[in-house]
Amino acid sequence: xxxxxxxxxxxxxxxxxxxxxxxxxxxxxxxxxxxxxxxxxxxxxxxxxxxxxxxxxxxxxxxxxxxxxxxxxxxxxxxxxxxxxxxxxxxxxxxxxxxxxxxxxxxxxxxxxxxxxxxxxxxxxxxxxxxxxxxxxxxxxxxxxxxxxxxxxxxxxxxxxxxxxxxxxxxxxxxxxxxxxxxxxxxxxxxxxxxxxxxxxxxxxxxxxxxxxxxxxxxxxxxxxxxxxxxxxxxxxxxxxxxxxxxxxxxxxxxxxxxxxx
Length: 262
Prior knowledge:
The protein is mainly β.
């Protein structure tokens, strides 16, 4: 009589094994959880004209420049949802202009507005659908020029080369004093100049406020308009009027000046 229930036990064990196998199959077939998207978009690459050209000699209108910055589209698996433009003026912090923090992903451009002698720097970053933000692009700066007739205190002779040519400042120790800008400029670390060189040209020293930036040496065996850049380390930048002090009777002729901010 004791051997009677064994077939029942075998059936129960078989049912339990079937259930375990079925559950095991279910567990194996369950899909893995989707990994969170934590990869930021690629960094945009910004293009912006570094030195803005002077207005034409016969220009009439508002004396502003409106350079346009453009950038490459970022790439991202979940899709780019917007771009943030950040702008910085010398002596200020990076800020987002306008009322919209993130711009449309279809607009890969931004237009700046500069007055004579101003410098603006710009950088861009991208955001994706998961909220990841790319690294900021390398900063790109642009500067509008100063001209002697428009932007300098009239303490020096201003000449031109004839009709429809830009005037230039004529610096000499023979008469007059230093030539300086009408306005003060913030955090200036240098200047880019358009200077007339030649065998009869001379030298002049450039200052911002009381800080000496360097000396213009326009002496050369050939006479032509050249671009000269004078700068000091960024930590030596100063705020003040840009001054040109003649050092020789031989003249230094300056046509355009682009201040270089920190």
